[in-house]
Amino acid sequence: MPFRMSGYIPFGTPIVVGLLLPNQTLASTVFWQWLNQSHNACVNYANRNATKPSPVSKFIQGYLGAVISAVSIAVGLNVLVQKANKFTPATRLLIQRFVPFPAVASANICNVVLMRYGELEEGIDVLDSDGNLVGSSKIAARHALLETALTRVVLPMPILVLPPIVMSMLEKTSLLQARPRLLLPVQSLVCLAAFGLALPLAISLFPQMSEIETSQLEPEIAQATSSRTVVYNKGLKVSCLRTPRPAP
């Protein structure tokens, strides 16, 4: 249940707040990036297209790839920013707040591709207009992973870009300057609002069941049905959605 899309905001917001904390140390950067990708890996696995079995080794491979890429990018960018002498301390702090976005976006793509690579090798089920199974298509699998990867790039954009901008303005107000203890609660509310805005926007970019013309798929798929188009499950919305198989 914690890894359903309906639980993404309540379980993901505390992690986002941690990612955007100012004055991050090396240890805190590594910890929050690791925790974020651990959560993302579980969400990807729980909401995958499960028409084909996926071995646990693929899950571990995707998880390790995402964690390594996220930590490497975040730490590398932080080191570059700290060594940039031409920036003032205030500018350097502001830039560091935007570091989580490229790290998370890149890791999300890595996570999705590695964890669902089996779909590219074996294909995913495609259905005709009546819901009957037509066959398994690798081309449809590529489309599904591309749509999912784009979704996972758009999703963190408002979450990790808007709060630093909003907080840089709110921190200058007399209220927060006089009461610095309110900074963390206010940042949490800003992150929660950004998360609530970003999630429905990101998952609505592509339909859950995407449609594709049979002429774009493998010849055996086009020959197996009279339908001009077929549909496939994009994955990453409905938990372990399975398409019906015809009775033998």
From TrEMBL:
Bilayer topology annotation: Multi-pass membrane protein
Gene Ontology molecular function: citrate transmembrane transporter activity; monoatomic ion transmembrane transporter activity
A GO term from the CC aspect: mitochondrial inner membrane
Assigned keywords, A-Z: Amino-acid transport, Membrane, Mitochondrion, Transmembrane, Transmembrane helix, Transport
Transmembrane segments: 60-81, 93-114, 153-170, 182-206
InterPro entries registered for this protein in UniProt: Mtc (IPR004686)
Location in or out of the cell: Mitochondrion membrane
GO terms (BP aspect): amino acid transport; mitochondrial transmembrane transport
Domain of life: Eukaryota
PANTHER family: SIDEROFLEXIN (PTHR11153), SIDEROFLEXIN-5 (PTHR11153:SF17)
Family: Belongs to the sideroflexin family.
This protein's name: Sideroflexin 5
Upper lineage: Eukaryota, Metazoa, Chordata, Craniata, Vertebrata
